[in-house]
Amino acid sequence: MAERIWTAGLAVIGDEILSGRTQDRNVAQLASWLNAQGIRLREVRIVADVEDAIVEAVNTLRARYDYCFTTGGIGPTHDDITVDAIAAALGVPVVVHPEARAVLERHYAERGGLTDARLRMARVPQGAELIPNRMSGAPGIRIGNILVLAGVPHIAAGMLDALTGTLEGGAPLVARTIGCWVAESEIAELLRAVEAAHAGVTVGSYPFFREGRVGANFVIRATSQQVVDACATALSEGLRALGREPTEGGI
């Protein structure tokens, strides 16, 4: 029986990402966290602060994958419309979550109190659960297979920490890197052959140009360390047979 592979998609929401003013760091940290949960990140979309665009992205990703994550657009300002868009995608109203309101009241008790703008961060699609946020009080949101995270990377990281171990997934991926001073075009057939010979393995090839010559790092991934090691050995032996010396850990 084939191993069950759990998957996720991510909608990165925010005009600031698309304009280039802010460089996204959430994709990498979410992908790494998901790998440890036994879930593969399969698709990422970057979406403007436009409700129709967010609705379309969320509805597509939540139907296509086991989990749909979003980052950004859940702050206190007028252009933070992710909650409204998620509610529209699901066809439910937006409500103020009583637990979220209580959390924010405590957080802002000595920070000027809970203003109308801050209260926006307690709004959730009806039926949602909260994802704890130990950094700034305002919680993330979980409803169905949709998980709504903050856009600020260190706050999103805290929310992921709170979610650790709570999502159903498969075996986590393990990886090993082999580097070599060789043009990937010269060993394309070798890469294809070693991947085909080891079930469940993927071999990613990442070329580079340094010191006036070409090389590549090959990342071998699978859910079994034994399979990864066997594939790495086969690749290293194949490289040596072609007169190329592999470098464990990459170049």
Short description:
The protein is an alpha/beta fold and 251 residues long. It contains 9 helices and 12 strands.
Outline the structure in words:
The protein is α/β, with parallel strands linked by helices and 251 residues long. 36% of the residues lie in helices and 27% in strands. The chain is built from nine helices and twelve strands. A six-stranded mixed sheet has the order 2-1-3-8-7-6, sandwiched between helices. A four-stranded antiparallel sheet has the order 10-11-9-12, covered by helices on one side. Helix 2 (26-37) packs parallel to helix 7 (153-163) and helix 8 runs antiparallel to helix 9 (225-241). It is elongated and about 70 Å long. It starts with 5 loop residues before the first strand and ends with a strand. The model has no long low-confidence stretch (mean pLDDT 94).
